[in-house]
């Protein structure tokens, strides 16, 4: 499969995205949690370039292969903290918005709110949304794995 577009993104769009990332990372959320959120949403959406880039970025922040290989099955493993599990559950619920999906239930939100303050929840929610944004663009244009932007 070949990518449908080869041009670079609009510089104004890239500047706006950089501002969003700056706000997300200034929130006090552990970069490893944000990396898990990004990776899980990208796995759900089948976005190979974001999975590739997410793994590379997580490793730069010290993430282990053991945990990275098990994000897809996080519920069945002992490798994640309760806070990470809450963030992953929120990620899945916010990402899976197909017809009839329950979305983010009060139970899921309350579990995340038990571990993160409002500013952190806002940043996690923005990370989920931004990841889904990129996943959809990449799937549409058939962007290929192998880039880390």
Alpha-carbon distance between the two ends: 20 Å
Question: How many strands?
Answer: 0
User: What CATH architecture label applies?
Assistant: Up-down Bundle
Strand coverage percent: under 5%
Q: How do the helices and strands follow one another from N- to C-terminus?
A: HHHHHHH
Derived structural class: mainly alpha
The level of helicity is: 55-70%
Put simply, the count of helices is 7
CATH homology-level superfamily: AhpD-like
Overall outline: globular
Residue runs with pLDDT of under 50 for 5 or more positions = none
Classified by CATH, the class is: Mainly Alpha
Number of domains: 1
Q: Estimate the mean pLDDT confidence.
A: 92
CATH fold field value: AhpD-like
Major sheet, described briefly?
none
Query: Radius of gyration in whole Å, from Cα?
Result: 15 Å
Structural write-up:
The longest helix is centred in the C-terminal third of the chain and has 24 residues, at 118-141. The chain has one domain (29-141): AhpD-like (Up-down Bundle). The two termini are 20 Å apart. With 149 residues, the protein is mainly α. It has helices at residues 11-25, 31-45, 48-60, 65-70, 82-95, 106-113, 118-141. It is globular.
Task: Describe the structure using short key phrases.
64% helix, AhpD-like, 7 helices, mainly alpha, 149 residues, single chain
Task: Give a short synopsis of this structure.
It is built from 7 helices and no strands.
């Amino acid at each position: 499969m070949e990518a449908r577009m080869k041009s670079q993104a609009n510089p104004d769009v890239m500047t706006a995205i950089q501002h969003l990332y700056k706000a997300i990372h200034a929130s006090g959320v552990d970069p490893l949690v944000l990396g898990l959120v990004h990776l899980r949403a990208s796995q759900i959406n089948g976005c190979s370039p974001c999975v590739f880039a997410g793994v590379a970025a997580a490793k730069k922040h010290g993430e282990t292969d053991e945990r990275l290989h098990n994000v897809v099955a996080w519920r069945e493993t002992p490798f994640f903290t309760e806070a990470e599990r809450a963030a992953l559950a929120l990620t899945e619920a916010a990402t899976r918005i197909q017809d009839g999906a329950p979305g983010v239930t009060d139970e899921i939100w309350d579990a995340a709110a038990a571990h993160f303050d409002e500013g952190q929840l806002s940043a996690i929610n923005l990370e989920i949304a931004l990841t889904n944004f990129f996943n959809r663009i990449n799937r549409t244009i058939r962007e290929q794995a192998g880039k880390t932007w």
